[in-house]
Amino acid sequence: MLELLGWSLLAGVVNALAGGGLFFTLPALLGAGIPSTGAVATASVASWPGYVSAFWGMRKRLRGGPLLALTLIGLAGGGLGAFALTRFQADNFNYLVPWLLLGVSLLYGRQLLSSKGFEGPLLMKPAAWPALLGGSFYGGFFGGGLGVLLMALMGQLRMGSSLQQHAIKLYLSMLASGATIVVYSVSGLVYWHEALLLALGYLLGGKLGARVLEWIKPRLLAWGIVAFGVALSGYYFIRFYG
């Protein structure tokens, strides 16, 4: 059980910085003998306190932002994604995960090299609604590398500054994860003993990660997200295709 706590602490830090904490907690839960859908549900529910603590440290970055629109997107997308997982086998979706992560990571890297950059005004463009709704749906259904996906989408949309994008990422992740708590609890997929232990680690790790976000250089962090996303996709290629 101490092993689960350690992995969730690391996952909380990673979720705050880039996303992909499931990379650490999902294998730990599967190793404990929990079925794949139950492991995804348990890890998703447990990650919520970490997102709350990380977002709380970044909340001022969204002052004056489109919070109502983001709230609707996060809750609707996360809830629908979680509901979809209760109706389908996650194992079939697994084979798409590495391709998705690799694609969005390379897309984000391309945006960083663009002369237009990846930052802009904090506005909800029409294209942001379906893009962020799709990202939140993914967060509710699976969530592995959600932060990389959301940062890539916002980079393409040039939605806010780097730190504002991280705040949006954490806010949407928090809402999508919160929506899964209701859906997965009703479905009976959550292993609550493991979930509560993981939640403690996520909470502490999220708070630590939010502090790191405030002083690390935005462009360095952005390229770190790209590298992490590519490495994460490689891990899932080996795991699901190996």
Q: What report would you give on this structure?
A:
- The protein is globular, with a radius of gyration of 16 Å.
- It has 242 residues and is mostly helical.
- 78% of the residues lie in helices and 0% in strands.
- It starts with a helix and ends with a helix.
- It is built from twelve helices and no strands.
- Helix 2 crosses helix 3.
Assembly type of the chains comes to: single chain
Helix content: over 70%
| Number of helices in the DSSP assignment | 12
Regions with little confidence, pLDDT below 50 for 5+ residues = none
Radius of gyration: 16 Å
What's the topology here?
Blueprint: H1 2-17, H2 22-31, H3 36-46, H4 48-56, H5 67-87, H6 90-94, H7 97-113, H8 128-141, H9 146-157, H10 162-187, H11 192-215, H12 218-241
Descriptors:
242 residues, 12 helices, 78% helix, 0% strand, globular
Summarize the structure.
This protein has 242 residues and is mainly α. It has helices at residues 2-17, 22-31, 36-46, 48-56, 67-87, 90-94, 97-113, 128-141, 146-157, 162-187, 192-215, 218-241. The mean pLDDT is 86.
